[in-house]
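User: Hey, quick favor. My workstation is busy. Could you predict this chain's structure for me?
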Amino acid sequence: MLPFLILLFVVGYLGIALEHPIKIDKSATALLLGMLMWVAYALASVSIIPAVNPGALAAYVNDAGLAAASLHEQCLQYILNVDIVEHLGDITQTLFFLIGAMTIVELIDVHEGFTVLTDHITTRRKRTLLMVICGVTFILSAVLDNLTTTIVMLMLLRKLVFRRSERWLFAGMIIIAANTGGAWSPIGDVTTIMLWVKGNVTTQALISFVLVPSLVALIVPMLFVLPKLKGDLPPMQKQDPNKPSLTTLNERKLILILGVAGLLFVPLFKSVTHLPPFVGILLSLGVLWVFTEIFYNRKKLEQSKEHRLSRVIKRIDMSTILFFFGILMAVAVLQSTGILATAAGWLDFKVHNVYIISSLLGVMSSIVDNVPLVAAAMGMYPIEPATATGYAANFVVDGTFWEFLSYCAGVGGSILIIGSAAGVIAMGIEKIPFGWYLRKFSLIAFLGYAAGALVYVVESVFLKSYIM
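Assistant: No problem, here it is.
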């Protein structure tokens, strides 16, 4: 049955990677894959669990008083009360965090909070504009997330750059800036969120050791694109000052400040209380919810014009949430059946180099989704105790493998336009062809990825040992 589970996962993985050619939403494929793998695992539990987890099964049977039950019943109850419960606990922490963060971002967006930032970008010099847009995208994606930041910046780009050929160059750099910006922040990318929520990395370590490599991975491609932009853009059309708006400038500023503060509060909350991040993000969401209720009670608008949180929450992308749920549940089966542990053992024996393993995963993330790649890596390698030495020391909290994986999985997705959510959304909004991005950006994105990776290796070998 184990070969069948591997085959099923590979087929499902291909379905996710080939979402656009086969025209089946990857969320549907991931959800179907996750549930089918649990069904197959349950049906074959008698042959898998006694061989993979005999000690855990025996302990559960003894505690649950199932000694007189059949082996099939013992294994099924073990799956229901141990495997599923444990994995759901980990998975739902990530999902609730994402739901909270996505809702806060939508709340800022629907109240035009992001225009407070974008309205200050007024330069018409092409090269200056590119550097400003890349810098803003890099910072915003660390605070929000790379998908939302890409949407905001692409919408802004349409107001600033009118020639399609030039706008595509800016859009390509937005993709790279969004992915590099999300890699060094615990809340900037889904993969860093996963690593941070599970406790593999801390905020301080990500900023200390992944920020500079991520910045290098942005600057290198930008140096190749800047010479292609010369002169100034035509003047912008002035917006009508009398255009009606539901919020004033001060109200938009207040919503933006409260939303961003709520997001930035979460890492501080986790470090002080040691509670899971989803508690902090839902606490921030609760505060914003109360604020918006009071806000609209005082404004006394028509109900149809109000953006209360109970309406805004319907705007979040639930298909994305279901995608994460499906793929994480599928990876959980690979972990429970010992497949990931076997794969980790093979990599340790054949490769035995965390830099090479993470680098390969990063390149793979440009072809297939980085969420299952990171989830699989987390399942393959448990967090080692702080006292671990030798090769195992790479897998302690804030170990080299986890930090470098955060960089590689986030930045590597820029090598191909289909390798990240930012790239896919740019394809949809700007209609950028796969082949155009491959010719214009794939090589320079890879050079940036390699340069940043080299910087991290130097940091890890020399700077870390010096600090420690």
